[in-house]
Amino acid sequence: MKTNRFLTLPAILIALALTFSCSSNDDNSSIGDGSSSSSVLVSSSSSGSVATDPRPSSPQAMLNKTALQYFNDEGIKAGWNLGNTLDAVNVPSAASETAWGNPKASQALFNGLKASGIDIVRIPCTWIGHVGGAPDYTISEARLARVAEVVNMVHNAGMKAIINIHHDGNYTQPPNTWGFLKFAEVTRGAANEAQVKAQLVAMWTQIANYFINYGDYLIFETMNEVHSGNWGSTLPAEQDRLFDWNQTALNAIRATGGNNAMRFVAVPGLGSTEPNIVLAAHSRGKLLPADGANGVSKLIVSVHFYAPSAYTVASATPTQGNEPLRHTITTAELNAIDTEAAHIKSTFIDNGIAVYYGEWGAPTNVRSTMNETVKSTHVDYISRVAAAARANGIVPIYWDDGGDFKVLERSNGSPKTGLWADVLTAYMDAVNGRYVPPAPTLPTNITGNLGNYQFGTQENDIDPNYTQALWILSPENVTLAKQAGTKLVLHFSEFPFGNMQLVWQGPTNKLWWNAKDIIEYSDGTATNTYGVEWVWESNTNILTIDLSAALADYAEFTEQPDINLIIAYYGGSNVNDLGIISASLVE
């Protein structure tokens, strides 16, 4: 995350003060706390010697599971980021755990997180100031040991852990004068890519070797939000470069062998790594690196979800940025949350590829003193994102920076009363299936001779079925529908991102006839698997369906005295997500 945008003014002043008062050795104390197995460490570094080695002394068990199976079987539903802590850094001095105003991580924090319902903790790690020069780029033992100590505390609390290379190059907007992941500089030809990749290999080789004995509860994430200066870039040349860097990092990890040969590794997309960025790269085959015999089973796609940005990552306080933070959110923006999650599911989850929202959230502190409407909208947003993630098999990992995005107290892992507690409750309810979304509103402005639809009903013929758009055909349209060659023409706001089915109903005779699926959406591509005649016009977003080819029994259909047509959509929270603009029957 673009973390420096979320430092409150007091935190900024603290960070400036600590720049002059803190040394890089603040990470070196208490090494070994929370470790279930340690041994004497015989080496030391310029950053300070370490008395004990916090790592397991022998390889821990690795379960022979895919990442998707592991998430499901281990019940990993909700995550949390230890933000602005091990990723905090004072330019140009070393990364410092307390530099941005948060206390050092403790066992009490992680015990509280587990009690609050958290299953996995992402530990963003910045290594700047703890790395030697070329060609070895040696990482200090003290820094590695502190990261291990935090991982141990997470594990001892009963949770899983993720570590990465976080702000080592993408902390500030270009020009980047001090980090090593000089993506922007390499992109414009101002830095040596071979040198960048050499350091990437050296660092991941050391990190992987240091943590080689850890079980599969420890996940590696190659890097964080690397970009060229354009946070929303989907340029093929930049996709290709990041794909190569992810491949380089993965190769270095796998080359260390041992448990790392099977360790789960997460890979991000460019910049903000929002869904559209990740999906664009994947559509070109430039997201998931090759992983040998593992295939995609040990890889995880890391997506960051901050949509809509004006509601989540605009200036959260008056001292930050130029774009004002918006405190309202539209129905279309809420529907997009479900649509994007469904698109991720059909592209990755349905094809056996695990996905987590490595970061998501919205600023709570700034809204905690506002009116009840603002607070209610904020809680609804949290519920909607978490519920959409759960419904589509995505693990959401909340971004908590200890400031504006704070949810839980760093002292004990529990929320403050008020809006913070409401956010946590909403989060836990959503990931545990207790969130009940508000009933969608029927559209009133659909054009065409079919006009507006109503929602279908559940099997009890009473409760609404929000996945179904039902048109009760007029006598004129019944006659038209029975004519050979008649087509159903639907104009959408965008292409459907999920399976869709055409159903017809003979209400007088109580007949239901399920068609073959019209569209099967898999691996990011809509297919005509079932042989139904349909044509999609990408320039107009119009879908044309031949009724005689789409219906399971067209002869039975034409014998009905009255007819209802139903479109069932499984790519969002409800059929409104299709964004139907017009619906017509045409000869």
TrEMBL record:
Q: Which Pfam families match?
A: Cellulase (PF00150)
Which InterPro entries does the annotation name? GH, Glyco_hydro_5, Glyco_hydro_5_CS, Glycosyl_hydrolase_5
Q: Name one GO cellular component term.
A: cell surface
Q: Which domain of life is it from?
A: Bacteria
Q: Name one GO molecular function term.
A: beta-glucosidase activity
Q: Does the keyword Membrane apply?
A: no
Q: Kindly indicate where the leader peptide sits in this chain.
A: 1-26
Query: Domain Glycoside hydrolase family spans what residues?
Result: 92-400
Listed GO biological process terms: cellulose catabolic process
Query: Which Gene3D superfamilies does the record cross-reference, listed alphabetically?
Result: Glycosidases
Keywords noted in UniProt: Carbohydrate metabolism, Cellulose degradation, Glycosidase, Hydrolase, Polysaccharide degradation, Signal
Regarding protein family, the annotation reads: Belongs to the glycosyl hydrolase 5 (cellulase A) family.
Q: Protein name, please?
A: Glycoside hydrolase family 5
Name its species. Answer: uncultured bacterium contig00117
